Amino acid sequence: MFVLGIDPGVSSCGYGCVAGGGDELSTITAGVITTEAGAPLPERLADLARELRGLIGELSPAAVAVERVFFQTNARTAMSVGQASGLALVAAAEAGCAIAQYTSNEVKQAVAGYGSATKEQVQRMVAVLLGLREPPAPSDVADALALAICHLTVAPRARRIAASAARGGRP
């Protein structure tokens, strides 16, 4: 199964596609989509939407995992991340992909085993889990790969819990 993780941002939007099955994880591709800083916001959003649609169309992931903005002290940053997140969600929905959203703490817990892990700890664990020689950089790429890894580890457990509940078992 291919999962595309997206760490949303208008200036810098990280993406990472991970293949997973059982205990095996491998990186398919990863990178950053950037938009021109001096361009008007509507043009930047249009460029980002076009890039995201192209990426999803090219990779055909089974699922797309997008970071959910849970808390942000800077309202301007929160707006920007929210706009980019919305574009990613629409592109995934238009492509018919399964969609999941995870908070930063949920991703850190799944990848590093600690919901308050530092960016450096997440980068190192992503490298370990994917068998990379160096931690992925920049942090947008590492965060996107971590989102994909999170989904690959959390989604099967969630499906088993839902199936158990549907059969009348305890969740």
Describe the structure.
The chain has 171 residues and is an alpha/beta fold. It has a single domain, classed as Ribonuclease H-like superfamily/Ribonuclease H (Nucleotidyltransferase, domain 5), CATH 3.30.420.10. Helix content is 51%, strand content 22%. A hairpin with a 4-residue loop joins β1 and β2. The mean pLDDT is 91.
Task: Give the secondary structure arrangement, pairings included.
Elements (H helix, E strand, L loop, with lengths): L1 E6 L4 E10 L2 E11 L6 H19 L3 E5 L7 H20 L3 E5 L1 H9 L6 H12 L8 H28 L5
Parallel strand pairs: 1-4, 4-5
Antiparallel strand pairs: 1-2, 2-3
Helix pairs in contact: 1-2, 3-5, 4-5
SSE string, helices as H and strands as E = EEEHEHEHHH
Strand content: 15-25%
What is the correct CATH architecture? 2-Layer Sandwich
Helical residue percent band = 40-55%
Distance between the termini: 25 Å
Summed up:
This protein is of the alpha/beta class. The chain has one domain: Ribonuclease H-like superfamily/Ribonuclease H (Nucleotidyltransferase, domain 5, 2-Layer Sandwich), CATH 3.30.420.
What distinguishing features does this structure have?
5 strands; 51% helix; alpha/beta; five-stranded mixed sheet; 171 residues; Nucleotidyltransferase, domain 5
